[in-house]
Amino acid sequence: MLDQSQGYVTADGRQIGGVLMEMKDITLRFGGVTAIKDISFDIHEGEIRAIIGPNGAGKSSMLNVISGFYTPQEGEVWYKGAPRPAMKPYEVARMGVARTFQNIALFEGMTVLDNVMTGRLNHMKAGILAQAIWWGKARDEEIANREHVERVIDFLEIQSIRKTPVGRLPYGLKKRVELARALAAEPSLLLLDEPMAGMNVEEKEDMSRFILDVNDEFGTTIALIEHDMGVVMDLSDRVVVMDYGKKIGDGTPDEVRNDQTVIDAYLGVPQE
Amino acid sequence: MLYRTAGQFKTSYKADQALFPIRQDAVLLAIILTFAWVIFPMTASEFAFQTLLIPILIYSLAAMGLNILTGYAGQLSLGTAAFMGVGAYACYKLIEVMDPILAILLSGVFSAGIGVIFGIPSLRIKGFYLAIATLAAQFFLVWLFEKWAWLYNYNASGAIQVPNLQTFGVYVTGPQASSVTQYYVILGIVTLMTVLCINLTRGTLGRTWKATRDMDIAAELIGINLMRSKLTAFAISSYLVGVAGALFVFMWRGAAEPNLFDIPLSFDILFIAIIGGLGSILGNYLGAILIVGLPVVLNTVPEALGLEIKSATVEHYNIMIVGALIVFFLIIEPHGLARLWALIREKLIIWPFPH
Q: How far is CA B250 from CA B16, B37, B148, B177, B183, in A?
């Protein structure tokens, strides 16, 4: 269990738990380029944590470090109170980290239902032979997981497109299906890489509502990257601000909004 | 009209996930199975067995193997014929110690092993580059079939001859076996494999494969072990291809030389899979019917019409017409005959309304 003594209460009165994930002095380099430099921050259980920053600040790289796609040269990732050894992305996913992608990464050849079902893969254990015969455990498992997937589909209001091939869907819906796939995995930590990129106002409102609902109903911890400042400030409990691979701010939306370094990074500094 | 789904309600996920959620599909399949299991064997001539029924089934099985790998898991392969060869040679060695049908089913295990070994490059390379890597299997294995005399029991011709063998007192292989018996053996094996493949492709493993095919990075980030996914695809694909290879030689050709398993056979099977439809089980049958059946039809039509055409000329026409048809089908439906059927079916379900 996590150490709950580190929990806090948010501005809107929600009780936040202990530290779920902690980044300790992470440095990530690609050859001579330092994408992330000595960054530390933590993500508490049950909170919505945003990572913001100008383009090229290293936000996506940070998310990729969390999801195990990149291994940092220095620093440690602590997860559920223990340092996480270097592992493959699929192993990280099996530890309860699910994510969505900046550019939609759905399986275009499959239906919405099958896409969301892939999110359940780590919960399905039947052997190949049992699957081939489609009997006993394999079939029960398929049906049990289908029920779970249907709950997610209901939750995100995509019932009507259940059996539509993903390739035929419009952009906004694809984003929602991607969220469904990540949610189906019942993650402890949900990573959202620009969940509202390219959406119109209405779609953004829908997506914001879903993110809040997910956090509220399932208690899922969410870490998100987003460019729309209005959305970020409204949604998140705490914000990390990055610029040129460094952390320049960390705190509640209000603290960050009034931080001079952050304002300088976003608005620029007047020439002397 | 024929495909009206009105009144067919699904009240459980089990019913919704059934093999045939639409009743008409089940009826259609029952009709096809009746033809395959009862009517064809009773009516077909020796010629029909040897030029149509048996080869169509065997090619369908081989294409199904390739389709698992290329169509479902997205790993391009040009080594199909070589893996068929592994199945055939393994079967040749196995019949010395066991029942021929058991030997055929087990021979796939050997090609599966070899397939996994040649599938290892897929962990690092993709697409056309992988296809070239599988060509290595094609050349290496055919060379091995020629040079490793133990495989063909050191006989002088370098070819394998299928002996007369019995299962439960009935000849199933060799010149003494009747076509009907062989047809039933093949049909039984192919039907079984088809059922298993349908189940695999619609279940967890199938989704793992399709995820690997559609977006491998995303697949890995949602928790799919790509190595496992790709290698199981290679193993199961090569198993099916190996069994098809054993059937090819033991139930149809009766003899085989190493060059039988050369690239042209790989291409034939790739054509069947592509024209039939990648990522479809039904497509393999449609493709095999087209590729195997068309030349037979083209050969017999001029004769039936009383036209005097030299057989060599017919052969040339054959190649030209089949080639043109392949291009034609790929233009009207790049996703193959199976997709064409799926679209027709979709239209029939909502007929007479356009949407």
A: 41, 21, 20, 11, 12
CB contact under 8 A, A142 and B204: yes
Sequence-distant (≥ 6) Cβ neighbours of residue B107 within 8 angstroms:
B86, B87, B88, B90, B91, B94, B242, B243, B245, B246
| CATH at B173 | 1.10.3470
Query: What residues in B contact A69, CB-CB < 8 Å?
Result: 217, 221
Structural domain harbouring B84: 47-350
B207 touches A at CB < 8 Å:
yes
B225 and A CB contact within 8 Å:
yes
| Average pLDDT over all residues of chain A | 89
Fold of A104-186: Rossmann fold (3.40.50)
Q: Distance between CA B172 and CA B178 in Å, rounded?
A: 7
Closest CA relative to residue B265, chosen from B15, B6, B81? B81
Of A42-56, A79-93, A126-140, A218-232, the poorest mean pLDDT is in A126-140
Residue A119 in contact with partner chain B when CB distance is under 8 A: yes
pLDDT tens across A130-189, in order? 888 888 788 888 889 999 999 999 999 999 998 899 988 999 899 999 999 999 999 999
Find, in chain B, the residue whose alpha carbon is nearest to that of A146. Answer: B13
Write out residues in chain B with pLDDT < 50, as ranges: none
pLDDT for res A272: 63
pLDDT at B319: 83
